[in-house]
Design goal:
- It is a single chain.
- The protein is an alpha/beta fold and 335 residues long.
- The protein folds into two domains: 127 residues, Rossmann fold; 137 residues, Response regulator (Rossmann fold, 3-Layer(aba) Sandwich).
- 45% of the residues lie in helices and 20% in strands.
- A seven-stranded mixed beta sheet has the order 7-6-8-9-10-12-13, with helices on both faces. A six-stranded parallel beta sheet has the order 2-1-3-4-5-11, sandwiched between helices.
- Strand 12 and strand 13 form a beta hairpin.
- The longest helix is centred in the first third of the chain and has 35 residues.
- The chain is elongated, with a radius of gyration of 31 Å.
- It comes from Baia soyae.
- Pfam families: Peripla_BP_4.
- Keywords: Signal.
- It is found in: Cell envelope.
Length: 335
């Protein structure tokens, strides 16, 4: 009797197992399928990108902002604009540090050849925040990439124009004025100019290179222009390495010899350029593509953050355009 009871119990248990096992398997399978098709956890809703601008109200940097915001809007990223009005390296370094502490997803900034700024860029990169420099490159920093003009190529483009304009004049003299305190832009442009003019053996090059301070920039430029004119009495052309210096240079030339005596060439976007062209005071200017810089910088930055482009190229050069007083335009294409 006892054996029979045990047997009945064993059979009953087996029946229960046989009944429950398929139910368990079906439940497990259903849960597994639910897990497979469960939506992935949503990614960070909006990427925060910080633009560190050296001159928020400047037309050039407004164009950069427009390019960045155009792409940011399409790709659902938010752009925070930080910066001042004078392009002060210490202020920009502090801005980089602040947005790094705020844990933005990426930083776009104009490069500044300043130890504090370089350190701030390096700290951001070491914190896992990618930094793209635009307009001015600092190759010895830990920036992810550089987007902007090839300043040496831009110098060659302007030098070619000067060479053509003066090729029929024998023993011509060209003055070059620039700031040694701006090695990543002014000095690279001057290098390109010299490369272009090197083929003109009869052309004399007179350089006036000086170190400028923020406080007395205009007065220094005027003083250096006087010094350049004192060094040579037969200057045929003058190349100004930065458009910001143009007003001070032209003021001195007008006082000393008259603007119609010397051909003037420069770089960058100059606010009074149209007026100077109409008056015949400037023969040619090489301008950057600030909006294109903004577009390219944020496009590459967002691609890197999202893992779509690894690694980033070291640099992307945007085109520079030579505009002349006669309305001609010549472009040094991006590469």
């Amino acid at each position: 009797m006892k054996k029979r009871t045990i047997l009945i119990g064993a059979v009953s248990l087996a029946c229960v197992v046989l009944i429950l096992l398929p139910i368990y398997q079906l439940t497990h399978t259903y849960r597994s399928l639910q897990q497979i098709h469960k939506p992935a956890s949503p990614a960070k809703e909006t990427l925060r990108i910080a633009l560190i601008s050296p001159a928020i109200r400047d037309l050039y940097w407004k164009e950069v902002q427009l390019g960045i915001k155009e792409i940011a809007k399409k790709q659902q990223a938010m752009v925070e604009v930080h910066g001042g009005y004078r392009g002060n390296a210490s202020e920009m370094a502090r801005d980089v540090q602040r947005v790094t502490s705020a844990k933005v997803d990426g930083i776009i900034a104009m490069g500044m050849d300043d130890p504090a700024f370089i350190q701030a860029v390096n700290q951001a990169t070491e914190s896992g925040i990618p930094v793209i420099l635009i307009g001015t490159d600092i190759p010895n920093s830990l920036r992810k990439m550089y987007v902007g003009s090839d300043h040496v190529a831009a110098g060659r483009l302007l030098g070619d124009k000067v060479r053509v304009d003066l090729e029929k004049k024998s023993n011509s003299t060209v003055g070059i004025i620039g700031q040694s305190s701006d090695p990543m832009v002014a000095m690279l442009r001057i290098k390109g100019v010299e490369q272009s003019l090197a083929s003109q053996k009869s052309m004399q090059i007179v350089k006036q290179i000086y170190s400028s301070s923020e406080r007395n920039g205009t007065m220094q430029t005027m003083s250096q222009t006087h010094e350049l004119l004192n060094r040579t009495s037969n200057l045929d052309a003058i190349i100004v390495s930065k458009g910001e210096e143009l007003e001070a240079v032209t003021r001195v030339i007008e006082q000393r010899v008259g603007l119609n005596k010397i051909q003037i060439y420069t770089f960058q976007d100059v606010a009074q350029l149209t007026d100077l062209f109409e008056k015949g005071q400037v023969q040619a200017v090489v301008v950057d593509s600030p909006r294109k810089m903004g577009v390219e910088s944020i496009t590459h930055l967002l691609s890197w953050i999202r893992g779509e482009q690894l690694p980033l190229p070291s640099h992307v050069y945007t085109d520079s355009t030579l505009e002349t007083s006669t309305g001609s335009r010549f472009r040094n294409e991006e590469h």
